């Protein structure tokens, strides 16, 4: 009898909790294709997981796309420009410690991306700062800097 009573209370509480919640149309930044966070994750996913040079080029400014294209492949760009090599299957996350992304009024912003993966059997963790410019209302990758927390 007590178990049924507790079950009934639990089910009622869950129902009331879900019935009273507001529906939110807010999409997380990393899931909204118009945000710098999404574009940063899509860019590195194209480089490391999809090996898709054209997709990476489409997410970069013209000048940065020229640099990427000059290396001929995603692997060449990652090795020589980013100095960051991974085997396929890299996990990508946005670092929100600085909360530096401002997209409303600004023409530039930056996003920190955390990388976790393997290279030749060794685990590799790294962080890069991706700098964006707003061109014709769309965010494009202008530059990729090193770890902003690294000692220099």
Characterization of the model:
This protein is of the alpha+beta class. It has a single domain (28-145), classed as Nuclear Transport Factor 2, Chain: A (Roll). It is 37% helix and 26% strand. It has helices spanning 2-20, 36-50, 53-58, 62-70, 74-80, and strands spanning 91-95, 108-119, 122-135, 138-145. Strand 3 (122-135) and strand 4 (138-145) form a beta hairpin. The termini are far apart.
CATH architecture: Roll
Integer tally of domains: 1
Residue runs with pLDDT of under 50 for 5 or more positions: none
What is the CATH third-level topology name? Nuclear Transport Factor 2, Chain: A
- Structural class per helix/strand content? alpha+beta
Strand residue content: 25-35%
Could you spell the SSE succession in H and E letters?
A: HHHHHEEEE
The CATH class: Alpha Beta
What's the total count of β strands? 4
Cross-sheet strand order for the largest sheet: 1-2-3-4
Protein name: DUF4878 domain-containing protein
Keywords: Signal
